Amino acid sequence: MIDKVVTAVVGELNRFLQSKHNILEDKVIISHLVNADGSMAVQEADKIVMTIINIEAERNKSTTATYQPNKRGNFTKVIPPVEVNIYMLFSAYFTNENYLEGLKFVSSVIAFFQSRQGVFNEQNTPALSGTLTRLVAEMVSPDFRDVSNVWNGVGAKYLPSVLYRFKTIPIEHKKPELEIPSIRKI
To answer: Which among 19, 43, 165, 171 is placed 20 to 30 Å from 74, CA to CA?
Structure first.
């Protein structure tokens, strides 16, 4: 599910940037910034790199199973999906000569989310059809200490970037559950 959400959002963002800047290439790529061995993961400069930096459980949703009646008058155990929020970091990986161009594209990423009021649904993001009915993105503004921790965790030097939290993505695996017969008076 996370992969579909990421692909859909980045696809829409690329279309927005192509239209806004009259370019043909995809400016946003999905990648780590740094490989596990410490080498740079991104081979192509002058891109916005989208990296997932955190996946957290949505604490406002219940994960308690319930029993619901089915058509035969029995009960079936229903386990709700796990709801998660994902944090997407959009970093300007541009050469020194194109530093200002990188800042322009970071500004355009912010403009993209502002233009949608942070809302993604099946109407404005067709790639979400059948996956989610609604996804909300909100900008996160970490303080300097948190920014330092993020970049230490990523394993890279700071790049101009913007962080968004995407709420909420349901993840579930439906398996056949045993029916529990209802208690009937005789």
So the answer is: 171
Q: Among 23-27, 75-79, 144-148, 151-155, name the most confident range.
A: 23-27
User: Cα separation of 42 and 51, whole Å?
Assistant: 11
Q: How crowded is residue 48: how many other Cβ atoms within 10 Å of its Cβ?
A: 26
What tens digit of pLDDT does each residue of 141-156 get?
Answer: 999 999 998 998 888 8
Residues 6+ apart with CB under 8 A from 87: 52, 53, 54, 55, 56, 140, 163, 164, 165, 166
Q: Which two tokens stand for residue 143?
A: 């303080």
pTM (2 d.p.): 0.83
Domains of the chain by residue range: 2-180
Please state whether 46 falls in left (phi above 0), alpha (psi between -120 and 50) or beta: left
3-class DSSP assignment, residue 144? helix
C-alpha to C-alpha distance for 23 and 157, rounded to whole angstroms: 28
Residue 120 is classified by DSSP as E
Q: What is the CA radius of gyration of the chain?
A: 21
